[in-house]
Amino acid sequence: MNRLIRIATIVALLVFTATLIVPIAAQDMGSGGPIIEPNFGDDPTTFNPIIANDGTSYDVINRMFPDFIGVDSATIAYMGGAKGGLVSSWDIAEDGVTYTFHLRDDLAWSDGVPITAGDVAWFLEATLSGETTSPRQQLQDSVASFEVVDDHTLIIVFNEANCTLIDTLNPVYPVPAHIFEEVYGDDYAGMDENDYNLNPTVSGGEAFVFSNFRPGEQTTLLANADYPEAELGAVIPQGWVYKVVTDQVVQMEQFFVGELTFVDSVPQANRDDVKARGAAGEFQTFETPAATIRFLSLNIADPSNPQDGLDEDGNPIDQGRHPILGDVRVRQALNYGMNFDEVNEGAFFGTGVPVASHVRPTDWSFPAGLEPYPFDAEKAMSLLDEAGFADSDGDGVRECSGCMHAEEGAPLALTVKTNAGNTSQEALYTILQDQWNELGFDITLEFVEFGTLVSEFTAQTYDAIGVFWGLATPANPNGIADIFLPGADVVGSGYNTQSFNNPRLNELIEDARNLPGCDLETRKAMYGEAYQILRDESPWIWISTSNVLLAAQTSVENWAPRAGGARWNIDAWTIAES
Amino acid sequence: MVKYIIRRLLQSIPIFFGITLISYWLMSLAPGGPVEILAFNNRMKPREREELKYILGVNDSLPVQYLRWLLGDDWMRWDRDGDGLADSAVLVDLYAPLLSEAGKPLVDEATGEVLIRPLPPGTARGIIRGDFGSSIYYKRAAIDVLVERLPATVELGMTSLLVGLILGVAIGILAAVNHGGWFDQSSRIGAVIVNSIPNFGLGLLMLLVFGSILGILPLGGRCKTTLSDTCPPIQERLEYLILPTIVLAAGGVAGYSRFMRASMLDVVSQDYIRTARSKGLSERLIWLRHGMRNALIPIATFLGPSITFLLSGAAVTESVFSWPGVGRLLVQAPGRRDYTVVMIVVVYAAIANILGYLLSDMLYALIDPRIRLE
Q: How far is B212 from A249, CA to CA, in rounded Å?
């Protein structure tokens, strides 16, 4: 009998232990249910980081390949050892161009092969070959050579020493060289059309690994069992599904009924509702500055005869002047004539944040005292008077009367174009049209199909075009070189489509980039002066940035977005059964 | 019948080429082009941009570009000696100017002649030989991009057609039988209302009511979101078809019902119906056997174009319901100047149209014994 009692006790203890173990196991890898995130765009075009060139592809790639150098989500700066990065530290040689990168040794591909310097070298080799359609040409411009010292040490030699070299490595990823060698070989030119691009067999080093891609429907990643950086010791979500939902109304309805786990940008029309429901505990919400700036590019050169900014020897070319926008006073008048409060309420539902130049207040290079133009209609009109535009016939539209570049009697008429179908852009420019017409302008609005708009933008045949500009994270103030330096004023492809050329600005940007020692405060002062020049000269009208609202279901535990990254701890998100 | 089909198919050939020619020409009229989209890159040098034009062949005249798309360019520029560079050419240039970094032709200072470089031989085989080219945006064969979207479009299109036809014919018959009555009036008003609401609005309304408020049907998509690499068989996900089918079929129901009603009323005034009545046949038999069968004949003329329309993808409905079909593809491709995808969808729609009308005619002959296709 005693024996029976002992056996029964042992069995009971085992059962009791098992009941304890099961819930613990339930907290293990993949126990948290999948994260379902909406993809408002379209299918990814590739999962190969060497040739990826669209946001949707990168959204997936960033979940399944580690960055070369990680960004610390708290400081929003590149940092050795930052989560999600392969580089644990780096040394800079005295020559300023030789960087030795030390790589972590605990990351592995999904087939168990360790991620090494050779994997980064394969990416660089293919990209620097110039044979792929990789959009990463800045690497070709800046990297002179590289050398794999050992599995976890890589030396990169740059062409010249400057303060932005780490930024130029932003698009570098390790790729599984043992697989890529087999699949692509040295046929870099044929890489684009390889079926492997959408059917990768090996990924890893991040929280998820590739599972499958269903065109027009979804891309699915699964929890990475060997992810060493998991906050809770293992990747909790079962997987990550990037689901195509092409209508914003439907997207939000899916979120409201719980079909979507997380929305990383609540549409403006739903913001108040989601915020209110968030405050009532129905959802989790988080607001953070967007990485985009809304701007109106003002063509300073003659749009009837677009020409590059520089000739083959680097000398400025006479591009003529825009009859109206060629005069800085007119550009300033447009700035003073913009009533931002009215625009913000009418077009952005009050979510806009005015900006003075090509920098956000949260960026390290933001200078104290840089202020947006205040709304001052009288000042705007006085500038137009000074510029030689007066309403001589009383029809409400000013005409050239001694102006600098237009013919005498020519009306102060401009055509403003923006992309059709974007309701906030259409509302914005409709309001601005009224505001500027009050000053004596004759603004014609055209809402143009986006592809056509891009063509006109790069062809430099426009008066004014309003679109968005994405800002890098971490912020790289040298980015303005690509937009406002004369070298970028290339008809057909350059981004300096407004043909802006200011010698002092050119000098400041070069100096800030090449400052010996790269002292941050000195560079900040240089960029500060550059931003002030841009604000005063107004080749663009910087209209606003905005705060984006992120929302997640309350059932998602450990959802803790930061300004530096909403998904920095995605491996710990636990989706409770609801 | 066989002769007729062959003759119609032969007649379709110039129609097909006409459609493709006009579509190609219209597309070329759109501002910008693939070069502008691909060259929207600050790092791209003017020389690279100009060379891209040669690679894409956009410097050639429009007829040559069309011919290249149609017949390929492996016969336009070819390599006889196998050195990888073209040594013979017709219609297109054998050489391109050597360009400076600024994209300008380089000139020999001594002779004043433009320096040239040989071009690689053409590799495109043209759509006639099944080569539809690569999608500029998706960077893979355009035919693959189309084919992977077809099953979803066929699934939704055929379901909508079936539902539209069955309901439309039934409502039309009932309206004719009760003409002037409450059902007839209601169906007329219903048809006007349905035809007045755009698919976009109707789709969103349905989603909000049945998906969001009542929560009894899914909010778009083709199947439940899972980690699986495929959707389950259609019978296991019928609920996903209900709303998009209703939206797509609504117009068909409205159209078929009005047409069927008119056709029925026309038929029942015929002498043979009067004869049937005088023979003492029941009203049910008269309406269904003699009336409906004859009234259905004109419906056949609708069927072909309807199939074409539904198989070509319903862009708006597919977008609202996140349905992964051809229609959505067609909406997105022109904005990206993805000409190869636009043109493959045009070719597909043109073939579907031609076959759809042929099917109509054949059905007409099969249903109506008075018609002989010769």
A: 11
